[in-house]
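Repro:
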Amino acid sequence: MSQKKKSKKKANRKRPRSITLRKTYFRNVPNSHACGYCGLVRVRYHMDHIKAWSKGGSNGKANLTPCCPSCNLSKSDSTVLQWIRRLPTRKRNRMFAYNKRKRTPLAKIVKHAASRL
């Protein structure tokens, strides 16, 4: 008796639109918001995946953070630790100072990265 092999189908993951990500993070989308990494308040902000979408990150609220375009575009698909290592010292110090007293999961990642540098 031969056993039939079950074929595993890869999940079809569609990249969501930015407005959908903003509605996931905030219920009512604000006009401006502070960057989760460096703290700059911008009228135009991006929603960044902390663990990159291309590396298997989810669209859940825990994996999203609002950030300024310069942080999001420079981070691209790297991890937070890899990205912080590439940053100039001035921006890195601003990021550490902004996340020093926060208790969010992202702040914990940034603090951990600061201790490893």
